[in-house]
Give the backbone structure.
Amino acid sequence: MASEQLEQFEGAATIEKVASLCRRRGFVFPTSDIYGGLGSSFDFGHYGVLLNDNVKAEWRRSMIQERDDVVALDSAIILNPQVWVASGHVDTFSDPLVDCRTCKLRFRADQLELASCGKRPSKHPGEYSECDLTEPRAFNLMFETHVGALRDDASIAYLRPETAQGIFVNFKNVTSSMRVKPPFGIAQIGKSFRNEITPGNFLFRMREFEQMEMEFFVPPADAEEWHRYWIERRHSWHLDLGLRATHLRIRAHETEELSHYSRATSDIEYLYPIGWQELEGVANRGDYDLRQHTEASGTTLEWIGHEERYVPYVIEPAISVVRSTLAFLCDAYDEEVVAERPRTVLRLHPRLAPVKVAVLPLIGKDAAMTEKARPLYEELRKTMSAEYDDAAAIGKRYRRQDEIGTPWAVTIDEQTIADGTVTLRDRDTLAQERIAIDSVRQLLVDRLD
Ligand code: ATP
């Protein structure tokens, strides 16, 4: 694959520039920042919420709505703690950590190249002459809490570190209540929590994040074929929503890299400005989870058909909303000079853009223009996310929409009053078309399709 050769992100984005735009334009804020923030945690502002919602909607559309073999689920965040014993998370969901005796900081042993030395930030831990690292030690990533009035060992519970287990423990409920039979999937979007140690890189690694996971149950003999199928499908999803082919690659895990439950895993990696990193994992989990929960709960989790009975294998595509959103933002971020003025633009796929169309009276104080513009805006917002803006010079209003990635702007001017036409400005080409005001809604609906 040509993309294998690419070492460096192609484009204007850096993590810092994307983070700065996100803060300036109300997409993402550091959490509780008036108290100094909290590591690897962020809050989403208006446009961030809309963008994340669109990412989730596209995932749901492709994974559930446009298929007839996948059903939805929304399981609890705090499950019976036995779930996490059976799944192996209590024993093995850990990262190897090293401490530096000199700077007293703690790092992930397998990601030292992403961390900075506490004494000499230009170097990685272990590279500076004064670094004194301990041997790696396992550190469990699950957040503990207590359920009920007593705070003792018996009341310990966990915030889920993945949504998948909520799906496995509902296998029987779903197969007995829905018209499903293997191959079929159960899809879930929801918050997961991990006490991550490697800090930084904006949204890439967070301590609480929404996951989009789908467990696809198949006859064991068909598992490899379905694994290939889902790697391909998920790769296409990223491409269809606009990620550059040269920024995506598929990397199969080496045997020693595989998680305890996995028979085979391929990561779909994205070339973030910080380098190639996992965007999505597609694993063949075999029958590990259903067997573990059968044994631990005493409830048999298997498929019983008319003439067959077996424990299905599971193929799992798993991605978080934020890693996806960050990849879309990095790919879309662009800087250029237009008419001798710099312009920053987010070239987001229209379906992902937080706002689809801005309605702008050319002169904000002109009553005749605003009288035409406001009803158009009110009509458009019934079907799509729209904004009305009559403040500041028109150029400034366009730039603001460019920075939040709005694909179209409709301008109402003097000619609108004379002949009922408006200009439709394209964010990427900057081309302006003259179209009838009555046709705007249908035209945009068609383009969004
Ligand atoms: P990593 O190796 O980066 O820690 P992982 O292999 O532990 O990730 P999985 O357990 O396979 O990740 O989780 C599935 C998906 O969830 C990942 O592909 C990624 O998209 C997302 N994800 C995992 N951890 C985080 C996190 N801390 N913040 C944001 N997204 C995450």
Remarks:
- The mean pLDDT is 95.
